[in-house]
Amino acid sequence: MQTFHVERARSLLENAEQIVDEAAVTRAVALVADKLNERFNAAGDETFPLVLGVMGGAVVFVGQLLPQLKFPLEFDYIHVTRYGDDDQGGKVVWKVIPRANVAGRTIIVLDDILDEGETLAHVKQRLLDMGAAEVIIAVFADKALKRSKPVQADIVGLTIPDKFVIGFGMDVYGYWRNLPALWAVRPEDLAPR
Fold first, then answer.
1. Selected catalytic residue, list 112, 115, 142, 171
2. Domains assigned to the chain
3. pLDDT tens across 7-60, in order?
């Protein structure tokens, strides 16, 4: 059974098209870092933000972004999903809520991608309902859809086409989060087997 999964994972990548190379990924992370540093390195700022990484997709982005941030911060993570092992969104499920108190604080939510926006809209509203003073959404990638989204990112590393993308934290059926660049998977390869 395991051999089938390995063969399918390799086939998905072999048939995929690289749409963003490693150099562009590195520039996108640096862009997000620069924008956050500009905002939070302001003279006289007496507070520091709580940074929340949205697991598991944001793990690669967060790991590369945090060392580039030049201001004091508290880090925690949340685990919210709509996908599971499927490629279509469903009900928002909170697996881990913030352990730190968010009330009265500026929260920076880091995620790998702003796709349809349902999950991040839910996250933002929940944090505001928990008393956050401000919620800033920073994403590695924003998918260019032909329709409006319920939330917009405040900071975006790069914009990608409306394709199913893998790599740099984004997966297909649990595979390929570990890729250092981005590939678009062919729609016909997303069909269940």
1. 115
2. 2-190 (3.40.50.2020)
3. 888 989 999 999 999 999 999 999 999 999 999 987 556 778 999 999 989 999
